[in-house]
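Problem 12. The chain below contains 316 residues. Write out its predicted structure in token notation.
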Amino acid sequence: MTSLLILTNSADGTCDALARILNDNGQHFFRWNIDMWSQYTIGFDGDAFHFVDPVGRFLDAAAEDVLLLWRKPFTALMTFDDMPLADGDREQARSQMGQWLYALVATMKPSGRVRLIEPYADRRLPKLHQLREARTFFTVPRSHFGVQAGPADFGPTVVIKPLGDPSVGSDNIFYTSCVDDRQLIRPYPWFMQEALVNGRDVTCVYIHGCCHFYECGFARNEQAIDWRMEINTEGQSSWNMLKHPRLSDWQDAVNRYMKHFGLHYGRLDFILQGDTLYFLECNSNGQFGWLDDVTTLKLHREFVTAALDPATIVRF
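Solution.
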């Protein structure tokens, strides 16, 4: 029987929902949580990768009926409770585990056993490259990256955002912000876009040819343009399925964009102003749990079906 090896972490709520669906379907799976790494036995014996979970269940990743679903196995989440390790030793442990994961993916990919989610896709598709290519399919806000001041006709009000991980140290997040670029520290590597301070936040969950568009009720303005600032707060804005006369056009554009990059899954973010949909980015492993119907788990079920479909083999 096919087994689904899910690489993730214990706080992955989406994986919790997937596990319930897989259990209901009688589908065998093995969940490996990277933050609980020390509670598993894992290894590589020169030929095969193997896993033993905390309750003794065993999985041999060399078996041809084992498929891999990459979720959120971030080495930064590895914990070292009660381990007398210096910071340098902890970073070396994370590096070692990262290389082990990379080798596991490289071993399973040629046989078509990595499904739906492309591991390390952000290395192949960094944000600036995405924006350049997206101009063929969408309207894209004007942007600039540099260490000195931007073009004279760009700004002064601009939006700044991170190109990669938004974490700042261990406790802070670099939220998308609207600023006066004349007040920015220079020289410094800033990424900025034209200030689209009005309109609505729109996201699309793309699952193997199916597009699910949602819009957020968050009221964007110059003081607050990042809807994520409301997450887990009382009265946070709701997301609802998008209805718009041009929706079919945008679904077609998303399909062509994802096929252009060879992706079977992604969550694409936009700003909608009137009849213009501005492309922001595609997260090739984006979360979608908060968008789903908690009673039907429609998106999660579609996700599971796609992960087991031979048509979603990851080739890159």
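Discussion. The chain has six helices and 17 strands. Students who got a different answer should revisit the alignment rule from Section 12.3.
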